Amino acid sequence: MECQPGRELLSQGPGCRVERCSCGTLHVTLGAVTLRMEPEVLQAMMPALNHAVTQLPPGEPRFARAQKPPLPS
Question: pLDDT of 6-49, one tens digit each?
């Protein structure tokens, strides 16, 4: 199938965005980098990513920066 302009936004968070192209390809944007992959590839890599997050020490500075800061009251 040929790609058409426009993508469907599937999810968005701090520094991350996941969109689906009309051809079915997923566009995973992390900061300034966009990875294009089939949905099966994203599903296959999720267990490894989830496991990596559990291996980070609590309060890991690099991990803490990825979180949204609290809104001022």
Answer: 899 999 998 899 999 999 999 999 999 999 999 999 999 999 98
DSSP annotation string for the chain = ----S-EEEEEEETTEEEEEETTS-EEEEETTEEEEE-HHHHHHHHHHHHHHHHHSPTT-HHHHHTSPPPPP-
Nearest to 30 by CA among 69, 5, 66, 70: 66
Chain centre to alpha carbon of residue 34: 9
Q: How far apart (Å, rounded) are the C-alpha atoms in residues 36 and 39? A: 10
Q: How far apart are CA 73 and CA 71, in angstroms?
A: 6
Structure tokens belonging to residue 8: 């469907």
